[in-house]
Amino acid sequence: MKHRHLLLAIAIGGSLLALSACKKDEPTPASDAKSAPQGETADQFIARVNEEYRAMYPEMTASQWLSNTYINDDSQLLEAKYNERFLAQLNLWIEQARKFEGQKMSPQTARAIQLLKLMTSMPAPKDPAKLAELTQIASRMGGMYGAGKYCTGEGDAQKCRDLGQLEDVLRKSRDYDAQLDAWQGWHSVAQPMRKDYTRFAELVNEGAKELGYADTGEMWRSGYDMTPAEMSAETDRLWGQVKPLYEQLHCYTRTKLQATYGADKGQVNGMLPAHLTGNMWQQDWGNLWDILQPYKNAPDANISDALQTQYQDDYAKELTKVGPSPTSTQLFEADRAAQLRVAKQMTERAQDFYVSMGMPRLPKSYWEKTQFIKPLDRDVVCHASAWDMNMAGDVRTKMCTKPNEEDFTTIYHELGHVYYYLAYNKQPPLFQNGAHDGFHEAIGDTMVLAMMTPEYQKTIGLIGDEPQNHDALINAQMRMALAKVSFMPFGLMIDRWRWGVFDGSIKTGDYNKAWWDLKAKYQGVAPVTARGEDYFDPGAKYHVPGNTPYTRYFLSHILQFQFYKGLCDASGYKGPLYNCSFYGNKVAGQRYWAMLEKGASQPWQDTLKEVTGSDKMDASAVLEYFAPLQDWLKQQNEGQTCGWQPPAENASAAAATPARKQG
Ligand code: X8Z
Ligand code: ZN
């Protein structure tokens, strides 16, 4: 499963499900009958579920790995089938668990039963026909996303670009129209998913209701050792803490976009034009560095440049192997070999950070079975993921790595998942999960915070010994804010949309409007052309067709600063938070590993307390970290009218004006 985190317990592949069922269609001895073995106690029941789960897990995961790294009808069929078997088995276990309600059992067993009900983010109806339909839709949507291409031109002149190529346009081009074309092109891929997604939402809701939840969103919010209502209030509270910082960053960015593209084209009603943020979903503005860098003359540890150089060196080495006048095939092969080489070097560098803190090296099979770069002979899901194939050391990552900073930090992120798997593999299968899903997402990102410090970058020779003055600090903080702060409202709005779809407050006919209303409200971004209901823009983001809950990433962006501070304290560091690196610190490493080993075996509040001293999620570490930048932004924005008016507010104003017919 891919970063299969909580809810799905193993979220696998796209979050679909967790494992498959038994082998072939033969009845398994233990639970062929709908009934559990006679006289089974609750503790025995959980022991049996753990065993059955472990047994069926590898083949389900294999089918998912296959359909994600080799997209075609056959692999989708197999994946859908294994997911169907697993979900049927899961429903059976959950039914069997009912009979233990109210009985005496160990606290660990009670927790395991609770987690069992939350094992998938794709609750399936019991009706076998609907169950099969659901898993087929899920696999089809995943395949459509993975294989999606934007094609222009006719016949021999036709040119098709995949997501990676379209993202490159947003990353590098500063041509307004070229970016708009790339942005619109990718969003056209999602249009045909609309019907499937509508049906998908109906089917999972039916499954969630059968399990006793009001809807799928309520079920997703139930995985946090608090009530679903408390959980959504928690996200509001945390967002309230960071919103002022986001608004300052937004204001500064808008000013710079207007300076680049003109007062009119650089904004839409005070919001950022969706195709101009350097990112397809406006979730990470790091690619706008050329426009947003605060101090052009101050040191700027540019990891992308260093990685490009590394690639060029690798390429030159490959060429020396073939001699003076290489054929075009040899040039091509040298490029592929160098791409693979640099991807592995980036991964080795990330591994080194974990190992320096006392964690194990990745197993040999990791290096053999991982997908490091995009294969050329087939479609694959390029969206990065981390997999635990068998709960016994066959861990892998799947990426289409390019030598740039974004992918370099993504490798640390994915290895965070992998180290979590390796650490909690000794837990019973039902506890092999993050303390909550936000923990799973935060492990690697915490390492990135330490990796991005000048202190660490000097140790690896990425930057020289030049003194770190105020300007360099602001540059570094801006770099980090463009990745982290810009993300926060995005991390929130995706599930605000899905919660609304699932609870019926967003109607099928309003999918796209509701999406852009939320983008406007939280992120302050807007499309520059009308995006009516013939579009399905949510489907252009991996986690929607992939059905991966997204609140986890919002929580992770808060938690990772708490973990960072906790580990800095453990390492004995004194000084401003943003300068702390615990590279090589075994005490911090042990504290981290102890947390990872716990998996989901206790409430996350207890686990958080062990690492940070507090049992509450809190954004004060975020604010402490970014304090210098926040001051600087306030000065930069002085005299500007910051903020924006979301269209919902425009619309209600318009509603009061009878003359206007349509909003
Ligand atoms: O999906 C991911 C990871 C895999 S769990 C690459 N992330 C979110 C995204 O890309 O939208 C990491 C940050 C947010
Ligand atoms: Zn992740």
Task: Quickly describe the structure.
This protein is mainly α and 663 residues long. It contains 25 helices and 6 strands. Helix 2 (73-98) packs across helix 4 and helix 18 (488-503) packs antiparallel against helix 20 (551-570).
Describe this protein's structure:
The structure is a single chain. The protein has 663 residues and is mainly α. It has three domains: 1-147, no CATH class; 161-223 and 237-299 and 471-541 and 626-663, no CATH class; 303-315 and 325-467 and 551-625. Helix content is 57%, strand content 3%. The chain contains 25 helices and six strands. The protein has helices at 42-69, 73-98, 107-117, 128-147, 163-172, 176-190, 194-210, 216-220, 228-261, 289-292, 303-322, 328-356, 364-369, 405-424, 437-451, 454-459, 470-484, 488-503, 511-523, 551-570, 586-598, 604-612, 620-625, 627-636, 647-655; strands spanning 149-152, 159-162, 272-273, 385-388, 395-398, 525-526. The strands form three sheets. A two-stranded antiparallel ribbon has the order 1-2. Strands 3-6 form a two-stranded parallel sheet. Strand 1 (149-152) and strand 2 (159-162) form a beta hairpin. Helix 1 runs antiparallel to helix 2 (73-98), helix 2 crosses helix 4 (128-147) and helix 18 (488-503) runs antiparallel to helix 20 (551-570). The radius of gyration is 25 Å and the shape is globular. The two termini are 44 Å apart. Mean pLDDT is 92; it is low at 4-33 and 652-663. L-captopril (X8Z) is lined by residues 3, 283, 384-385, 410, 413, 553. Residues 1-20 form the signal peptide. One of its GO terms (cellular component) is membrane. Disulfide bonds join 151-160, 382-400, 568-580. Chloride binds at residues 224, 552. This is Peptidyl-dipeptidase A.
